[in-house]
Design brief:
Layout (H helix, E strand, L loop, with lengths): L1 H18 L5 H6 L4 E5 L3 H13 L3 E3 L7 H8 L3 E5 L8 H10 L2 E6 L4 H11 L2 E4 L4 H15 L5
Parallel strand pairs: 1-2, 1-3, 3-4, 4-5
Helix pairs in contact: 1-3, 4-5
Length: 155
């Protein structure tokens, strides 16, 4: 457990240092009210993605230990939820229902699966997706599109 936490902290610090030069303050101010939740069984992947989201101006949110994903989404009500295709508890109908009710944009990803598998998982629930590794510009576009799609219409 200590080793995992140390890896998470080191990963977050490394990402912040590497990307701090390209971080835009206007992006932070524009999205300061948005929060993000990452659901992944791999704590290093979760820490890296949360760091990237934080650099894009999203406030990171964390599920409690062993908290079901649907409960975490209902409790935290994040703007965006990034879901690892391999996170079994976060790929069921209860999770997608909770995300929809919370108004959260869901984006699926996987560090291990082929692009076609990720795309199929996203298509099944009509959500956005990306593959890892991802460059910052692509992540920014996916986030912007997902947030736009999830925003209530002004009709």
């Amino acid at each position: 457990m200590v080793f995992t936490i140390s890896r998470m902290v080191l990963a977050r610090v490394a990402v912040r240092r590497l990307l701090s030069m390209s971080h835009s303050q206007s992006t932070s101010r524009a999205r300061a009210h948005h929060s993000a939740l990452v659901l992944s069984d791999d704590p290093v992947v979760a820490a890296l993605l949360l760091s990237l989201l934080e650099l894009e101006g999203f406030a990171p949110r964390y599920a409690d230990h062993n908290e079901p994903p649907a409960d975490a989404v209902a409790r935290l009500r994040p703007c965006v939820v990034l879901v690892d295709c391999d996170h079994a508890a976060a790929t069921g109908d209860a999770f997608y229902t909770a995300a929809s009710e919370a108004g959260a944009a869901v984006i699926v990803f996987s560090p291990m699966r082929a692009r076609s598998e990720i795309e199929a998982a996203a298509d099944e629930h009509a959500v956005r997706w990306f593959t890892l590794p991802i460059d910052q510009a692509r992540l920014r576009r996916v986030l912007a599109d997902a947030v736009h799609d999830a925003a209530p219409s002004s009709d």
